[in-house]
From TrEMBL:
Transmembrane segments: none
Family assignment from sequence similarity: Belongs to the peptidase M17 family.
Superkingdom of origin organism: Eukaryota
Gene Ontology BP, a term: proteolysis
Protein name per the record: Cytosol aminopeptidase domain-containing protein
Length: 133
């Protein structure tokens, strides 16, 4: 059963408590959606999740991010032109064309100060490449 509404009563009657609780509720809902999506991706069988559907999911995540996530997908020709031979060698075993997915997150500019840059590199292995890790 999903939670559809919450009634909040501020202990001191202040609206700040309610606004903070609302923001926390929204953040929790966003986190839950991310967890559910991750589980759906991990548990999807190969006939549902392949390189093309994973790329489509990445594009959808970017489109729904409100501009904070940019998605770039490199197809086989673009990977060849960049000399990505090792990546393409693994992708040869796939029934679908390789889709190199690059997601870039840019936080909203709310604080006015520069934030540290962090890079996270990961891989999405599908069943048709010999398993997942």
């Amino acid at each position: 059963e999903h939670l559809t509404s919450v009634t909040l009563l501020a202990a001191d009657g202040g609206l700040d408590d309610v606004t903070e609780a609302d923001a926390s509720l929204v953040a929790g809902q966003q986190m839950a959606r991310g967890i559910f999506l991750t589980k759906d991706i991990v548990n999807a069988p190969h006939n549902i999740l392949n390189s093309e559907s994973l790329a489509h999911t990445a594009k959808r995540i970017a489109a729904e991010s409100g501009g904070t996530i940019k998605c770039t997908i490199l197809n086989k020709k673009e990977c060849e032109s960049r000399g990505m031979g090792a990546y393409l060698g693994v992708a040869r075993g796939s029934e679908t064309e390789p889709q190199f997915i690059h997601l870039t997150y840019t936080p909203p500019k709310s604080s006015g100060k520069d934030l540290k840059k962090v890079g996270i590199v990961g891989k999405g292995l599908l069943f048709d490449t010999g398993g997942y890790n």
